[in-house]
Amino acid sequence: MSKDVTVYTTNTCPYCVMVKKFLNEQGVAFKEVNVQENPAAGDKLVETTGQMGVPQIEISGEWVLGYDPETITQLLEK
User: Fold this and answer.
1) What's the burial of 12, exposed, middle or buried (CB within 10 Å: 0-12/13-18/19+)?
2) CATH number of domain containing 70
3) Number of domains within the chain
4) Do the Cβ atoms of 20 and 32 come closer than 8 Å?
């Protein structure tokens, strides 16, 4: 089953790189939104989640804050 996955990142975030590598290794297609290059998306992200940090991963409407492979896998398998 295909999930809608969006990863919110910045240019300087090592955990963002780790999340993208993990998703690629799992064969998960995702959309990347760089909030450093798109400040409006960053503002909307903070409004939505109340969190300023990245990476934030939205998986079919559910959120994961930070590099958390276990939670990401659980949401992908739901």
Assistant:
1) exposed
2) 3.40.30.10
3) 1
4) yes
Q: What pLDDT is stored for residue 58 in this prediction?
A: 97
Measured between alpha carbons, how far is 49 from 28 in angstroms, rounded to an integer? 23
Q: What is the pLDDT of residue 3?
A: 86
Torsion sign (Cα): 64, 8, 46, 59:
negative
pLDDT in tens, 23-38: 999 999 999 999 999 9
Q: Exposed/middle/buried for 40, CB within 10 Å: 0-12, 13-18, 19+?
A: exposed
What's the predicted TM-score (pTM) here? Answer: 0.94
Q: Strands across the sheet with 31-34, in order?
A: 31-34, 5-9, 56-59, 62-65
